[in-house]
Amino acid sequence: MTPVPYEEVNHRSFEEEAAKEFSLTRLGPGTAELRGPCPRCHMMIRVPVVTSTYKSFRLWRRSSAQPVAPPGDVHEEIVICTCEEDHPGRPGDRSGCGAFWRLEITSS
């Protein structure tokens, strides 16, 4: 499969797909790791998240059908693809395919 060319891009569908596919693992107090496939290039990525301490985690995305956040603290994380795959046109000082999106992490 040919890798997608590098492009700094965000689509609302990235948030929706990542909220379904990513998992969040607590590593220690106030520290976690997001893990899942980039919604653009589909390569597996890991993203460290440092926040206040949560008792448990749940990925959540606000939609028109769900305009109010669920109970608990909400942390918004901007996620950028950091895959190691070669993407044509990628600047030498960058990693990933250029995709970025937002995930909201709530305590449950």
Please count the beta strands (DSSP E, at least 2 residues each): 6
- Helix % is under 10%
Shape category: elongated
Cα Rg: 15 Å
The secondary structure category is: mainly beta
Major beta sheet, strand line-up: 1-2-3
Helical segment tally?
1
Order of helices and strands: HEEEEEE
Q: Runs with pLDDT <50, length 5+? A: none
| Overall mean confidence score, pLDDT | 83
DSSP strand content: 35-45%
> How would a textbook summarize the main sheet?
3 strands, antiparallel
C-alpha termini separation? 39 Å
Compact overview of the structure:
This protein is mainly β and 108 residues long. Helices cover 9% and strands 36% of the residues.
